[in-house]
């Protein structure tokens, strides 16, 4: 049955906020009881300030948060809840989570889709399958089967139904960027390109479990990989299955632009010159990145999860986004 994320959010917000109000009421009742026991009614405060209630409270926007909540680390917004949903979706793409079972699924070093299916109640009818190669591509367009935005849409269909996909995409995009330019798909892609990894690092206190391969500021190539599924041949597969094909795609795109440039004038020509510059810069950036990935691929680096992110991340620093 098709479901709207809006309805799920409103129900979740009502439950969370009711729990907040109940906890505050309970704490105030305890304060009143102890004040009576120790004959201190009127001498000690009974009311509990918003900032001291230690459970979540959800507001639709940051502008709605009252000053009385300043200092409360549990305040959340609709954007926070949608970011959490996206993070869960990425977890399902990697097989860390599943729509078919509760809790962690793939969390042991080197886990594969084989282990994922072994933990499913009905392996023949899995609602949403994780990627087989542990790579989620983040590029300007859906150039790969494992394009993270295309997979996010598939997740929404699996979780909420095909009939509500467009409305759910609009709702997600509006929560991420109420004044954002472009279509909902443009906004979602921009979020994955520019903000997802930063949000993930904040959630995991600068110890990310989803690592971002990043070719540079031109955005020629980015991809997420899941630390727990890392295997020594991962960088080699990224080079051969993603970076090298993308270099060929950029070369083909430049040929197409040049062909059109030879036949047009005016505003269209100016737009094409700008596009040609963008693709040329991306191609040059990707060529440099290919050399970095090639060096890492040749090393076949092994890691130990017990060493932690702080030890393992620097081993691939040339190819990964900086943790901020």
Commentary on this structure:
A three-stranded antiparallel β-sheet has the order 3-5-4, covered by helices on one side. The chain has a two-stranded parallel sheet with strand order 1-2. Helices cover 51% and strands 6% of the residues. The chain is mainly alpha-helical and 324 residues long. The chain is built from ten helices and five strands. α2 crosses α4. The longest helix is centred in the C-terminal third of the chain and has 34 residues. Among the domains are: 73 residues, no CATH class; 97 residues.
Give a quick precis of the structure:
The protein is mostly helical and 324 residues long. The chain has helices at residues 5-37, 78-94, 113-118, 148-160, 165-176, 184-194, 196-203, 234-261, 266-299, 309-312; strands spanning 57-59, 75-77, 136-138, 210-214, 222-226.
Q: What order do the helices and strands come in, and which of them pair?
A:
Elements: H1 5-37, E1 57-59, E2 75-77, H2 78-94, H3 113-118, E3 136-138, H4 148-160, H5 165-176, H6 184-194, H7 196-203, E4 210-214, E5 222-226, H8 234-261, H9 266-299, H10 309-312
Parallel strand pairs: 1-2
Antiparallel strand pairs: 3-5, 4-5
Helix pairs in contact: 2-4, 5-6, 8-9
